[in-house]
Specification:
This protein is mainly alpha-helical. The chain has a single domain (11-425), classed as Up-down Bundle (Growth Hormone, Chain: A), CATH 1.20.1250. Helices cover 83% and strands 0% of the residues. Helix 3 (60-84) packs across helix 5 (116-144), helix 3 packs antiparallel against helix 11 (357-388) and helix 5 (116-144) packs antiparallel against helix 11 (357-388). The chain is globular, with a radius of gyration of 21 Å.
Length: 433
Amino acid sequence: MQPVADGAERGNFLERLVQVERGEWPRLAIAFLYFFFLLGGYFMLRPLRGAVAANNSEILHWLYTGTFLAMLAIVPLFGFLVSRFRRGQFIPAIYLFFISHLVLFAVGFEGDATPPWIQRAFYIWLSVFNLFVVSIFWSFMADIFRPGQAQRLFGFIMAGGSIGAIIAPSATKGIVIAYGATGVMLTAAVALVLATCLAIFLGRHTRKDRENRHTKVIGGSVWEGAVQVFRSEYLLYACLLMLLHNLTSTFLFNGLAVLVSEQITGFDERTTFFSHVDQIVQVLAFLFQFFITSRLVRYLGMPNTLVLIPSLLAGGFIILGSSLGIVLFAAIQVAQRSLNYGVLGPTKEMLFTVVDRETKYKSKNFIDTAVYRGSDVTASWIFKGLISAGLSIAHIAWIYVPIMVVWGAAAWRLGKLYSRMRTNLGPDESVGR
């Protein structure tokens, strides 16, 4: 169990609630708004992806495969940018790259009349976009906040994203009725432009705090991030944790897409259903992020906090195996995603505050993109194979219960490694700053 800095216990009510020390507010506020617009823009688009998934539920495993191949193509390009350019140059460039594509999709989308190839291309694009921009955001946060600060503040920063994600589905529900998918995409593009501006402002503010010293170019090989993953026990356990989580989340996503495809008709109706699901998820995630997660890590320690999630989900899968319906299935998915965004997400990002800068950007991005989508592909083909073998969704739920046990064991080991590295690093230090 890691102690919280004394300064987090002083100050006014808001400072005690957020666990922020005086002097941290400017950087924290910018990061909060940055993630608000970044995740808000994405969650305007996410219901569209859900509707596309329901329209193409019979080939979701191929869409996952296409996403994984796209990730493999982009990872070396990202490695090149990180190796050759400063943080303040490659982060805005990547965001603007994706925003330009979103505008092109806005021109080509026409609801149910949208050609299937455009729908599928959008699904793959959004799956790539989401992981890259969020991974870059948290690499940035791990680079500018110390481990002790991360433990106190990452939950609050993630809550900024959740507020954006709570508001976004309501915006999507209103906009899609009046202006269709094109209106949703253009509104999301505006939010993402604002996030890009805040990223630039945060970089300049951080540089000003460091007496206008530019961050160094990280350098190294384009492939160094991937190579380092296979050399490090710590990073391998992080990959295993992601694989086991994705086996679970992909089953729930695919299963719900199948049920929605069978029971709800119409692109707009499916978009509205997924908007409701997303909104409930983000409200619950916000409550975890703002009030609970940092305190869980403080009082339970990292190992116990990481083990908590598979333990709770194991009970949910037992319930699914015993009784199945679209409302119950959606409820379990809501629980899984709420715990993912509310607890696992902040703690996962804390894990990267105890490593060097090359690992924070290159290895972390490789894990968050190629490894993440690779595990998605594996999970999706497993799901397709089990369904093709004649197993029902309820039967598959029982198969996943032992996966929770393995997940719990891996989470415990990873948490212990983090605690050891955190102790060696010291509570107020950061690597490669």
